[in-house]
Amino acid sequence: MTPTPPLRRLAAALHYRDFRVLWFGAFTSSIGTWMQKVAQSWLILTITGTSSAFFLGLDSFLGEVPILLFTLIGGVVADRRDRRQLLLMSQYIQMAAAFTLAALVYADVVRIWHVLSLSIVTGLAQAFGGPAYQSLMPSLVEKEHLPNAIALNSIQFNLARVVGPLVAGAALAAFGMVACFGLNGFSFLAVIVAILSLHIRHVPSTRSGMHAELKSGLSFVRNQPAIIGLTILAFATTFLGNPILTFLPLFAQDVLHGGVGDYTKLMACAGAGAVSGALVVAWLGRFRHMGRTLLILQIVFGIVVVLFALSHVFWINAMLLFAGGACMVMVYSMLSSLVQLIAPNDMRGRVMSIYMVAFRGGMPLGSLAAGYAATLTSPPTVLMTNGVLLSLIAAWFLLKSHGVRDV
Fold first, then answer.
1. Which of 56, 46, 260 is nearest to 170 (CA)?
2. Which residues touch 185 (CB under 8 Å, ≥6 apart)?
3. Segment (H or E) for 402
4. Mean pLDDT of all residues in the chain?
5. By C-alpha distance, which of 109, 129, 29 is closest to 100?
6. What is the pLDDT of residue 240?
7. Which tens digit of pLDDT belongs to each residue from 247-294?
8. Which positions ≥6 away from 390 have C-beta within 8 Å?
9. Does domain 14-400 have CATH number 1.20.1250.20?
């Protein structure tokens, strides 16, 4: 058999037309999303002053809490309805929220409750759009190229994490926060056009009631030890790992004594590491011992988080963020790939919604808990504790398996 050329292997999923169209549309939108993340964190820092640690955590919590409340329903709807239409609805709502925040900042009437409320609206839209997007992905490529597609999706999101903060920094300096929010609103047009141009059509196969379908999805997952283990790991990784990004504005300002420019550079370093990690996963594709590999990477990620909390030197923190970003996205990509490979197509929306409740739900709970704990101790102390726990949990699964080590 002739070996696959490295570049073709790396970009295997991009040879599928529908995946390629959606990838470029999502990449454009992700740049806008990261611009807004940077500007919104700095806006909260500006509005709240000394209470910023709590409100940064609260904003992250409120933006993600709809995932806990509505994603299971979103997964059932994704199996019952046209997934493209569900995705479009999600994009329209998020675009409206971005333009609303831009208008509030432009009129100089923005208050912290405005920011928090719009985060809830955006999270609600993502609760329904997320399962639709995740369950649509395997329909765009052949099964053998699914891990590559998921890794490439991580690449576009994390490449945007590099580009977005850099563009946001320039826009903040030249035009102010309103430009970041407004450009994010316009960026949704790219993914909307991409969704409308997809050739794939999802024909729902389920006809029973929503309650019965939700129950059957939970029953399927309950009988799959590997999915249960992967879901627990997803929650632990986001609950304990995501605060390293939540606290970046505080580290830039209070620990490293920098400004918004240093903050955006740190975000870009984390994004560059994430892109590098995703490139590795994309090149590897589906390989043996994926479960064991992701557990080892999570142990390394926990160690990196501890070292980041201990360091007060900018260039060392930047290097650690690069390494942490690489480990984080490699773990995320492998977790998602394994769950999607195990789940059957007619139940993928429900299985992915259960997984996403844990994966995305860990972010708001982790940010809220870390934000509150930081008011009692300090952000570095919280991150050190989280890093130790991350490594211990991964080591436990590595020793005991619970269906994960051998997948």
1. 260
2. 32, 95, 96, 98, 99, 102
3. none
4. 82
5. 109
6. 92
7. 888 788 777 777 777 887 887 788 788 878 878 877 776 767 778 888
8. 236, 237, 240, 241, 298, 299, 301, 302, 305
9. yes
Cα separations in angstroms, 91 against 59, 60, 111, 125, 393: 20, 19, 24, 8, 36
Euclidean distance between CA atoms 157 and 326, whole angstroms: 13
The residue among 333, 284, 298, 293 whose CA lies nearest residue 155 is 333
Neighbours of 318 (CB within 10 A): 20
C-beta of residue 352 within 8 angstroms of C-beta of residue 135: yes
Residue 364 to residues 77, 99, 120, Cα–Cα distance (Å) = 23, 24, 11
Mean pLDDT, residues 145-171 taken together: 78
Quick: pLDDT tens for 61-88.
788 778 778 877 877 777 777 778 888 9
CB 149 within 8 A of CB 15: no
**How many angstroms separate the CA atoms of 142 and 138, rounded?**
7
Please state, in angstroms and rounded to a whole number, the distance separating the CA atoms of residues 310 and 304: 10
Could you give the 3-state DSSP secondary structure of residue 287?
Answer: coil
- Look at residues 352, 346, 343 and name the one whose alpha carbon lies nearest to residue 224: 343
Identity of the amino acid at 340: Q
Which amino acid is present at 338? L
Distance CA 13, CA 24 (A): 13
| Cβ atoms of residues 195 and 84 within 8 Å | yes
Give the span between the Cα atoms of 175 and 337, in whole angstroms. Answer: 40
- Tallying the residues shown for the chain, one arrives at 407
Question: How far is it, in rounded angstroms, from Cα 183 to Cα 31?
Answer: 9
Q: Would you tell me how many other CB atoms lie within 10 Å of the CB of residue 4?
A: 11
Locate 280 and state its tokens: 């590795």
Query: Do residues 154 and 27 touch, judged by C-beta distance below 8 A?
Result: no
- 133 pLDDT above the threshold of 70: yes
Distance in angstroms (rounded) separating the CA atoms of residues 290 and 94: 34
Question: Cβ(74)–Cβ(131) under 8 Å?
Answer: yes
